[in-house]
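Hello forum,

I keep getting stuck at the same step: I have a sequence, I want structure tokens, and every attempt I make locally crashes halfway through. Rather than fight my setup again tonight, could one of you with a working pipeline run this one for me? It's a single chain of 315 residues.
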Amino acid sequence: MKNKVNRVALIGTGFVGSSYAFALLNQGVTEELVLIDLNKEKSEGDAMDLNHGIPFAPSPTKIWFGDYSDCRDADLVVICAGANQKPGETRLDLVEKNTKIFKSIVDQIMANGFDGIFLVATNPVDILTYAVWKFSGLPKERVIGSGTILDTARFRYLLGDYFNVDTRNVHAYIIGEHGDTELPVWSQADIAGKPISGWTKNKEDFKQKDLDDLFLNVRDAAYHIINRKGATYYGIAMGLVRLTKAILQNENSVLTVSAYLDGEYGHKDVYIGVPAVVNRSGIREVVEIQLNEDETQKFAHSVKILKETMSPVLK
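Reply #2:
Ran it on my machine without issues. Output:
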């Protein structure tokens, strides 16, 4: 019999964390899930509520509320804790207050002997992933941020909707900061192997402004959602489950995560959204896709903004 089971420790059971736990249970991804939050009553209530849904889940999952000692045997610690983005506030505005919160969280996790993989979802995700790497002392490949996985999903969804094609057949990436300086890699975008430029030729009412506006809707999606409902959580929760599957099931899947660059794309010492191969060891390798001159300049600008923003806090 198999003695070792997969354990995921979730830190933070707010909107994103509880949505992630719900999606995780519904997809039967892990065998154990422990919920950890400063508000113990909230995490206890979530555990009770989720357990009552197990008869309807695809596979058994042991779920309980716990504390940092439960991270010792965890394969994956997913951090969703921290201050939320408020209306009118950018992700980068959150740097200082969330960095302090993360220092306390990571110190307690590591003090309990954690030796698995960190997955960070809290914003500004690129900078906080860098912070977790620094605070934990773990190898860079075992600290991963959700990066532009949601931005890429939004991009693919809107392209599929625009061209009336199943979004799962759209292959296109958003890279860079998960935020205002992110960029679409139009030069490598395709649907079923056919470049986007080929699809636009067949669309009688096509205007370049349509694609320009499409990207703006991707980049600013969080602001639109926050203005309407206060927070975004369903999309990112499902993105985190996708990453969890890729890690626990050793998929070697290519996903746009916040990964550490050590010379890739001509940059070093920064976590930023790029395609990477993700498996049981974390990030196996960063995938360097070919960028045109404009994309190269925009990516360099994104790196510059991230470094300038985190420098007063983490350097």
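The chain has two domains: 7-145, 149-314. If your local run keeps crashing, start a new thread with the error log.
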